[in-house]
């Protein structure tokens, strides 16, 4: 009879969303508030940047409290990642000092865990690797995220509107990609051609199971009849077929679920293939892979930009940004030649203008570091902080792009 005495219920340390068993995001609603642009906008004030830092710290702290771990924190010096790491370290230490309300002590968290088997938390600034989130990748999950509408493990496919149908009558299809989807878990990191082969293989296995059920059903009425009755041999055959048919019928719900899952991934793969063909994304993927690995290019970047059948203006801007980032020294005339071609196809050049200023600042900062030595001043750190970007945190030593991976222990 204590329910009437409850006045309010508070949720604490829930500033993250677990999408998978080892995958979480720290912000879903109003994600632009802690985005790359929010941290790098020239209009951002110091107080606004500190607010963003506190928000990121609160999100990571919530993950640590939920996991019940006190990690070893590491981050590079001289950027926003260092500011987040220091603020997170301070917050954890303050919580540990307060033994009455500490979130890291209790029956579920052994005291020894605070000293042994602690995970490693590596906090990296997004500026550490700008090329990866712009890269046209070739794996299943990355393509779904890049080409389709994917949010909170639900992908939405745009309706195919024929000449006889209007856009108002055609309905969009949506599919969930939960952790219970074995095909998704197994092939989300596989190259797209391998996924297409796997879908075909799953379809063949389903057809074999379906044919087995049909064959057993036909065998039930095909037994030999002797003088109007079953012979001993046919009776045994009937009993065996009955048992097998019963087993097959009991597996029908599983077969129907497999068929539904196959249809889902067939539709998703078909939508991806249509986008890949329409935008020639295989060409962009190969070009960008060679740029990142410093290999020789089969075509020049300007040829891809001027090809009207190759991708959208955004695809070409992404490719050129990677080319610009991977080029140690690009002449001003070469830069102008490419940006003029991009401008001719209606591309937005504002990202390039920012990266050009950032690259010039990076060179200036590197030169100043050589002069002043390894120990940079606090003023320099905060200047770098102002041109930092969206922070990526990893509870292991593997950096990622848009999300955070959680490893229970190392």
Overall mean pLDDT score?
A: 78
Helix content: 40-55%
The Cα radius of gyration reads 29 Å
Order of helices and strands: EEHHEHEHHEEEHHEEHHHHHHHHEE
The secondary-structure class comes to mainly alpha
Tell me the total number of β-strands: 11
Major sheet: 3 strands, antiparallel
So how many helices? 15
Distance between the termini: 46 Å
Largest sheet, spatial ordering of strands: 1-2-11
Strand content: 5-15%
Regions with pLDDT < 50 over 5+ consecutive residues? 222-233, 376-410
The coarse silhouette is flat
What does this protein structure show overall?
- This protein is mainly alpha-helical and 410 residues long.
- It contains 15 helices and eleven strands.
- The longest helix is centred in the middle third of the chain and has 28 residues, at 192-219.
Topology:
Layout: E1 17-20, E2 23-25, H1 36-40, H2 46-67, E3 72-74, H3 80-97, E4 120-125, H4 131-134, H5 140-147, E5 149-151, E6 154-157, E7 173-176, H6 182-187, H7 192-219, E8 225-226, E9 229-230, H8 232-250, H9 252-279, H10 281-292, H11 301-306, H12 313-326, H13 332-344, H14 350-372, H15 378-386, E10 391-394, E11 404-405
Parallel strand pairs: 3-4
Antiparallel strand pairs: 1-2, 2-11, 4-10, 5-6, 6-7, 8-9
Helix pairs in contact: 2-3, 7-8, 7-9, 10-12
Key attributes of the depicted protein:
single chain, 15 helices, flat, disordered C terminus
In short:
With 410 residues, the protein is mostly helical.
């Amino acid at each position: 009879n204590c329910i009437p005495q409850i006045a309010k219920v508070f949720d604490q340390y829930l500033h993250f969303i677990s999408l998978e068993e080892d995958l979480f995001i720290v912000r879903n609603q109003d994600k632009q508030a802690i985005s790359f642009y929010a941290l790098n906008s020239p209009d951002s004030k110091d107080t606004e940047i500190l607010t963003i830092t506190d928000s990121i710290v609160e999100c990571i702290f919530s993950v640590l409290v939920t996991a019940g771990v006190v990690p070893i924190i590491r981050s590079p010096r001289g950027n926003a990642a260092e500011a987040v790491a220091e603020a997170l370290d301070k917050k954890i230490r303050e919580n540990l000092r307060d033994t009455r309300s500490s979130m890291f002590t209790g029956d579920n968290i052994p005291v020894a865990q605070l000293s042994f088997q602690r995970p490693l938390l590596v906090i990296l600034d997004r500026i550490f690797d700008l090329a990866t989130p712009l890269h046209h990748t070739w794996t299943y999950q990355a393509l779904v995220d890049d080409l389709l509408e994917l949010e909170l493990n639900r992908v939405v496919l745009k309706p195919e509107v024929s000449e006889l149908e209007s856009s108002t009558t055609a309905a969009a299809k949506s599919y969930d990609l939960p952790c219970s989807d074995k095909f998704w878990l197994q092939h989300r990191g596989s190259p797209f051609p391998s996924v297409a082969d796997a879908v075909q293989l799953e379809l063949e296995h389903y057809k074999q199971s379906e044919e087995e059920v049909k064959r057993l059903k036909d065998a039930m009425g095909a037994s030999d009849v002797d003088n109007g009755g079953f012979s001993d041999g046919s009776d045994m055959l009937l009993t065996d077929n009955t048992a097998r048919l019963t087993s097959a019928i009991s597996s029908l719900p599983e077969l129907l679920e497999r068929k539904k899952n196959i249809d889902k991934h067939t539709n998703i793969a078909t939508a991806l293939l249509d986008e890949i063909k329409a935008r020639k994304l295989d060409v962009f993927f190969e070009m960008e892979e060679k740029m990142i690995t410093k290999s020789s290019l089969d075509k020049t970047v300007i040829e891809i930009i001027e090809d009207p059948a190759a991708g959208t203006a955004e695809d070409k801007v992404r490719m050129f940004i990677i080319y610009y980032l991977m080029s140690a020294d690009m002449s001003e005339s070469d830069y102008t030649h490419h940006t003029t071609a991009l401008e001719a196809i209606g591309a937005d050049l504002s990202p390039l203008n920012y990266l050009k200023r950032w690259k010039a600042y990076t060179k200036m900062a590197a030169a100043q570091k050589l002069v002043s030595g390894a120990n940079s001043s606090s003023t320099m750190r905060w200047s770098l902080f102002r041109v930092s970007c969206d922070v990526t945190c990893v509870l292991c030593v593997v950096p990622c792009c848009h999300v955070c991976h959680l490893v229970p222990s190392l």
